[in-house]
User: Fold this.
Amino acid sequence: MAGRIYPTPQDAEAAFYEALERSDLEAMMSVWAEDEEDIVCVHPSGARLTGQEQVRESWRQIFARAPAMRVSITQQVTLSAAMLSVHSVHESFSLPDDPRAQGLVVATNVYVRTAAGWRMIVHHASPAPAGSEAPAVPAAGQAPKTLH
Amino acid sequence: MAGRIYPTPQDAEAAFYEALERSDLEAMMSVWAEDEEDIVCVHPSGARLTGQEQVRESWRQIFARAPAMRVSITQQVTLSAAMLSVHSVHESFSLPDDPRAQGLVVATNVYVRTAAGWRMIVHHASPAPAGSEAPAVPAAGQAPKTLH
Assistant:
């Protein structure tokens, strides 16, 4: 299963949702990149998870309690380009007048290289659960990495 | 402002958060890709927005009611590769035994081309507000597009 080859991104996406529907952990992990690179997974209203170990454990827990579920995908927008850069960040919001008023948001930002330099094409933000800022995540705080 | 050139993705990201902190709509939109390509923006717990018009209007509304706010970015993970594919989808969940039990999730999925075919590196999912599945979004339901 780990050796499965997906010839196109669409094949990988189809396998992802098939594994989700079947609660099949090995099939799910066969979709994710295997190398040392960071992988990033944010479940709905969940903290950002990075790396094989955290991502696998999260799916294991989800599948352990998941009922039989159907998932259908609609309104797909696909963006491919020769030069894309994907950033995952924690956004810490605060009010200058009230240091106690704080909020944490996890965001996925995607930039594309255009004739006019780099521009944003995706900003996906969601609330991070309380405690996400704490360095409980082993991979947190590490230096940015580049794939390949 | 629309002609600003960001030599690196980091420059574009810095400009994005600077515009956010300053509630500067023109600076914000100077960060986004300008061409016909789809751009995708999901605000925390918000619906997926696509295209210049929807994205600009959302920031205009946010900035109109935003208090002076500080934003700091931490725990950045950067993923760059020669061949990346970014998909934005709506995930419709349902229980086979109870058709009324339904849920809608908006997800950003990023795939990378590896020696072993295409693999996922990012899955960012967040709950979509009620009504997001309705075709109220002009760009919804369109065919997948490829940049460049």
User: Anything to note?
Assistant: Strands of chain A lie at 40-42, 48-50, 70-81, 84-95, 98-114, 117-127. Confidence is low (pLDDT under 50) at residues 134-148 of chain A.
